[in-house]
Amino acid sequence: MGKNVLEINDLNVMYGKMIHALKDLSMDVKQGEIVAVLGANGAGKSTLLKTISGLLKPKTGSIKINNNDLVGIPAHKVLNYGVAHVPEGRMIVPNFSVKENLLIGAHIADKKSINKNIEKVVEIFPILKERLNQTAGTLSGGEQQMLAIGRALMSDPKILLLDEPSLGLAPILVEKVMEMVKLINETQGVTVMLVEQNVYIALGIANRAYVLENGYVTMSGTSKELKKDPTLKKQYLAG
Length: 239
Prior knowledge:
36% of the residues lie in helices and 27% in strands. The longest helix is centred in the C-terminal third of the chain and has 18 residues, at 171-188. The chain has a domain at 4-89 and 157-236: Rossmann fold, CATH 3.40.50.300. The protein has ten helices and ten strands. The two termini are 32 Å apart. The chain has a six-stranded mixed β-sheet with strand order 6-7-8-3-9-10, sandwiched between helices. Strands 2-1-4-5 form a four-stranded antiparallel β-sheet, covered by helices on one side. It is an alpha/beta fold.
């Protein structure tokens, strides 16, 4: 793996004055990696992604993408640094067509590359090719998740932040979506940070992982190491 694409040091994030959501958090993601961020509900996983993408402002700490400091950069400009965020719940525009949703993701792309990027997305997600003119709200949950990821790819990101892509999907679709995330990583060279509650499936595709508990990183290592870790096994991989 190459140099650090993402580097986070001593990050502290508050909600108001009372809730300390992320505590002295440090982590990195190298070029070409898939890094999973694991943990229970309320551990701080979504807060982390929102802070990287500029939706939340940290109290202290630094976030660097390819050595560019992101703290203080407004969310709509973070995209220009190669960060694409697929939020939990997908956030597609239901009354727009599939193609119109993809075009929303292309607003910073070079106009000449838009059609090429659409071709690239439908090659990864062939089902979307058949649905380009269909209203996005009529797609199945799995297809909507594919559309949300495809929309993020339209900006040619350096790093893709995926928040709970398996949420609400049938097991067979979860597997399919994860296979496609791996495909994007391997064939397009896109670095991925994957926030996921489904620890087993996340460790199946990630190179490394961090475990968050109450805003702290409590564990980190390669997926192989973590699969064998007795504490992780007991808490998250039982059965």
